[in-house]
Amino acid sequence: MPNPRPAVVCYPVATLPHPDMATLAAARQHLTQVGEIIVPPREAGAFEVPAGHFFRIVSIEGPQVGDLNLFNATDLNERFFSGKTRALHATHLTTGHRMWSTLPFLRPLATITRNTLDWYGWDEDGGGVHDVIGTRCDPYTHHLLSGGDEYHHCCHSNLSRALATARGLDVRDAELLVHDVLNVFMCTGFTRDTHQYFMKASPVQPGDFLEFVAEIDLLGVLSACPGGDCSSTHSSDAAQCHPLKVEILRPTDAFLAGWRQPARNGYSRTHGVG
């Protein structure tokens, strides 16, 4: 039955702290690459980015989707909060949007400074690129839907192994820290009839990239999804997959000298008690 009352945006963001995009645009004109990793197909890799530095996730050989986790490099309890990021910004992220951290911290971890797929917008199916609605492919859902098959290169497993290696953790402990992702380069939406989550071929091509500035010292973990461009399947070895590259970029000393990390959220955490 139609509801005549208007839709209301849940979180009006007029008072949300906004990044200084003009200053960031000027800073990104003078970046020097200081590191990189190559993430193999159906695997994940970890990398660190100091506060005020930039990083890019780059398509290098063919269309490939990546699943990104971000952590405070000095406190893994503070990590990316995809649900709140979605609520504050949109289902799909682009230039100027920020990746917010979990409660009780709730501050920007990274800000998107360049998206070479900005042009895609929304397609005829309602699909967009770089979503924060999908959770990550995982071996538990695969086990459930496949009737018991075990597959160890789902993004959840990839991220768990890479985080365990980077921080010297047992993989079972690491997976408890792995969280819902930014689906980099992935083209997704909801079907208009049943409102189910869908994926379609990513428009990403070699040379495309998604660029961020690290708001705090970051540990990133990126999985090259076993679905490849996610045009047909995931959580299997059937799709053609390609590597992804992460570049770490240093701005000028003058820019870094003026960098200020965002403060942790100021709420008292009393929750009305005491």
Q: Into which percentage range does the β-strand content fall? A: 25-35%
Average of pLDDT:
97
Domain count, please report it.
Answer: 1
Order of helices and strands: HEEEEEHEEEHHHEEEEEH
Distance between the termini: 46 Å
Helix share, percent: 10-25%
- Described by the principal axes of the CA atoms, the overall outline is globular
Compute the number of helices. 6
Structural class: alpha+beta
Which stretches are low in confidence, meaning pLDDT under 50 for 5 or more residues running? Answer: none
Describe the fold and architecture.
Strands 2, 4, 5, 8, 9, 10 and 12 form a 7-stranded antiparallel sheet that branches. The model has no long low-confidence stretch (mean pLDDT 97). This protein is 16% helix and 29% strand. A hairpin with a 7-residue loop joins strand 6 and strand 7. The chain has 6 helices and 13 strands. It has 274 residues and is α+β, with helices and mostly antiparallel strands. The chain has one domain.
Write the layout of secondary structure elements.
Elements: H1 21-27, E1 32-39, E2 44-49, E3 54-59, E4 66-72, E5 75-79, H2 82-88, E6 98-100, E7 108-115, E8 128-131, H3 139-146, H4 155-167, H5 171-174, E9 182-190, E10 197-200, E11 209-214, E12 218-224, E13 244-250, H6 253-257
Antiparallel strand pairs: 1-13, 2-12, 3-11, 3-13, 4-5, 4-9, 4-12, 6-7, 7-11, 8-9, 9-10
Quick overview:
The chain is of the alpha+beta class. 16% of the residues lie in helices and 29% in strands. Strands 2, 4, 5, 8, 9, 10 and 12 form a 7-stranded antiparallel sheet that branches.
